[in-house]
Design goal:
Elements: E1 2-4, H1 10-22, E2 26-28, E3 46-52, H2 60-68, E4 77-84, H3 91-102, E5 105-113, H4 129-155, H5 173-187, E6 194-196, H6 205-209, E7 215-218, H7 227-231, E8 234-237, H8 246-250, E9 256-258
Parallel strand pairs: 1-2, 1-3, 3-4, 4-5
Antiparallel strand pairs: 6-9, 7-8
Helix pairs in contact: 1-4
Amino acid sequence: MILWFSGTGNSRYVAEMLAAELGQSLRRLTPDLRNGSLTPAPHDDTVIWVCPVYSWGLPPYVRAIIKNVDLGSAPLIHHLVLTCGDDCGLTAEMWRSDLAKRGWLSGLAFSVTMPNNYVCMSGFDVDTAELAQHKLSAASLRIREIARSIADFRAGSGDCPNEPDDVVRGRFAWIKTRIIYPWFVRHAMSPKPFRYTRECISCGKCAAICPLRNINMSEPSGKSTDSSERRRKRPVWGTDCAFCLACYHVCPRHAVMYGDKTGTKGQYMNPQS
């Protein structure tokens, strides 16, 4: 069973390709799983978590699901596949620690380098088209390699390996995960700066793609002399935000902004998911 969370489609693409290679079922990590249950199929002995890296750590939304979801009592081996633009820091170690608190057994951990999509701070932007295509081309080979490793592990004794995780940790991994990540979660993930501009055409794509259904299309509260303008519904962001940035990247008019940080930034959606 493959459990996946994705905003712009990178992790979804990885999950779907792994499912095809391994013959595994797919299950999106939906909001109800934060306090719900999920019963693996009788033949499932493996759970593969697929998700992006958030500032060198796990997405808080995914951590909340790991903390609370009920997966039943059957013994399962858990593997991890991370998507990241550059490096992961100690995200795999964070995942193993979260699993250990549940008494779950962790197996293998991998990372796949994918096109960047974080744009909400100065100095961060999407990759060039050439670099993004290079990463996507390399990713397909990497995913097949990961699938073979997981298949070989399942065909073996089932004992957890002592070998290092197959992830790109990068430099200063401890500082990135132990210091920068907590700051990022506390201070840089608020949905309050999200807004729309005059370019908004009320298409509703931002609301439709939101994995937590945190965006509602509502009529503007301000006064307008244009009756058609008053009838147009605009996006309103709630507080239950996973900060996946899908709303920003999917907008066909580049009308979704995050404060004043994204006006000249690019957009990216995985073309294969």
